[in-house]
Amino acid sequence: MSQPAADSSDSEWDIDRDADAGHISIPGPSASKGELLETLKALQVHMQKLQEENRAIKEENKTLHAEKPKQKRRADAHDELSVHEDIISIYARKYGMMIEMFPSSDLLNKCLPDSPTPFDSTERYRAASTQESSFVDELYHHFPKSLHKVMESSYFSDLVMKCIPDARANEIKKLHGVAGDIFDLPSKYFTNTSYDRANVPKIQQLLGVTSSSNLTYKTFPPVLFPNLKEDKSLKTIFGNWELLAQVLKASLQGIMSLHQASSGGGAHTNSMKWSVRQVMPGSIAWAAVIAIFLLSPDTEFSSTGIGKRSTISYKELFFNYKKVLVTKWNTKRIIQIVTNINHFIFKAARPLTLDSAGHEDHTDAIDRALVVLDMESSDDESDASKSAANAADSECALESISQPGLSTHLCTTEVPPVPIVNNIDISVGPGTGDSKEAPDVVQESISSAAMAAEVPRDSEPEPSSRWKQAKPRGRKAAANITPASGTVNRATQSRK
Question: What is the pTM of this model?
Answer without folding.
Answer: 0.61
